[in-house]
Amino acid sequence: MLYAVIMAGGSGTRLWPESRAAWPKQLLVIEGDRTMLQATVDRLGSLVPLERILIATRRDLAAHVQSQLSHLPRGAILAEPCPRNTAPCIGLAAIRILREDPDAVMAVLPADQIIAPAAVFCESLRLAAALVQKESRRLVTFGVKPSYPATGFGYIERGEAVAPPATFADGAWKIHRVARFHEKPARSVAEEYLAAGSFTWNSGIFVWKAQTILDALARYRPELYAHLAQIAAAAESDRFAEVLEEQFAAMEKISIDYAVMERAEEAIVVEAPFAWDDVGSWLAVERYRPHDESGNVADAPRCLAIGSSGTMVRARDPNHVVVVAGVEDLVVVVTPDATLVANKHDEKSIAAITEQLRQRGWTEHL
Q: Can you tell me the distance from the alpha carbon of 128 to that of 173, in angstroms, rounded to the nearest whole number?
């Protein structure tokens, strides 16, 4: 059976000041009227029943997640004792799923992406699950065809083509072995990737058998796996909570890409046939809001733009008036305790904000 693990533990610092450690971007409304987390669950439709959906998140976010997803069954939230990046998180989720279904296939989905249309996305997950059922050692990921030389995404280099399962053999799918994963590149390198035509952005979406990913962790990260094994052994014990706390905290902080995918021989990449956006900046958020004739975005109850162009204003207080005059290409974000005014194209400076605040001891704003 297919299970879905939605990773909802990130902090989304590039959307400061609205996204904070205690209220990160997956809990925000970016498009439409649903939060990114709610939209991720909604997107699964009937493909994965609610009882087979797990939400992996930080312990301190669990109550917020529960309030947004109150329709999920009890036990759907997998609260991590502490942040340890995606490899420990995925390993813990696999252990949980295997207790219910030893032959389970799990789709791993970030909670902070915008994907459409949902029907195409679900059909893509069906394809990935069929690829895994055909060959249980496969680790399937989705690559997004790049539309510009992005420096904020990792890249996947395609290898030889892989035939789709018989039920999907209509020529519409582009499936390849992974030749190599590449880290976030400099712009000149990203331009080379774009020109080559054999590279995709790394979406961070995966499909594999739960047992296969645990086996891969055992092979490539044995020390990390040893901690997971102790957690699994204590699952029925009255010491489970204590063992989970101790063993999870002892794991190294490492992503599933570094831990497994970059070394795996059976990594498969499917070119995503759906639209994808990880909404990693305010410049990205701007795309989902209406623009006036000067390219301004007024995502605020009371906003006035005078002689300005290409500027985005985001505020939530209905009594707070925001005026931008004689400016261009700014992003202005107003919250009750902080205001951001920045060049919307200077993503590097915006990404450095939280570290600068930490150095000044202004941790109440993180």
A: 11
DSSP string, 131-163: HHHHSTT-EEEEEE--SS--SSS-EEEEEEE-P
- The helix (run of H) or strand (run of E) holding residue 189 is helix 187-196
| C-alpha to C-alpha distance for 216 and 163, rounded to whole angstroms | 23
What is the distance, to the nearest Å, from the Cα of residue 71 to the centroid of all Cα atoms in its chain?
A: 22
| CA–CA dist 189, 183 (Å, integer) | 11
Contact call for residues 310 and 294 (beta carbons, < 8 A): yes
Looking at residue 363, the DSSP 8-state letter turns out to be G
In the chain the beta strands, taken as DSSP E runs, fall at 2-7, 53-58, 77-80, 105-110, 114-116, 139-144, 155-161, 175-182, 199-209, 267-271, 275-277, 297-299, 303-306, 312-315, 322-325, 330-334, 339-343
Express each pLDDT in 201-216 by its tens digit.
999 999 999 999 999 9
Model confidence pLDDT, tens digit, residues 107-128:
999 999 999 999 999 999 999 9
User: What is this structure's pTM?
Assistant: 0.93
Nearest residue to 108 via CA among 177, 210, 27, 195: 210
Tell me, what amino acid is at 112? D
With left for phi above 0 and alpha for psi between -120 and 50, is residue 279 left, alpha or beta? left
Closest among 256, 257, 237, 262 to 247, alpha carbons compared? 237
**Amino acid (1-letter code) at residue 93:** A
Grouping H, G, I as helix, E, B as strand and the rest as coil, residue 197 is coil
Q: Which two tokens stand for residue 113?
A: 């992406």
* 314 exposure class (CB count in 10 Å sphere: 0-12, 13-18, 19+): buried
Distance set, CA 309 to CA 65, 254, 263, 294 (Å):
37, 42, 47, 5
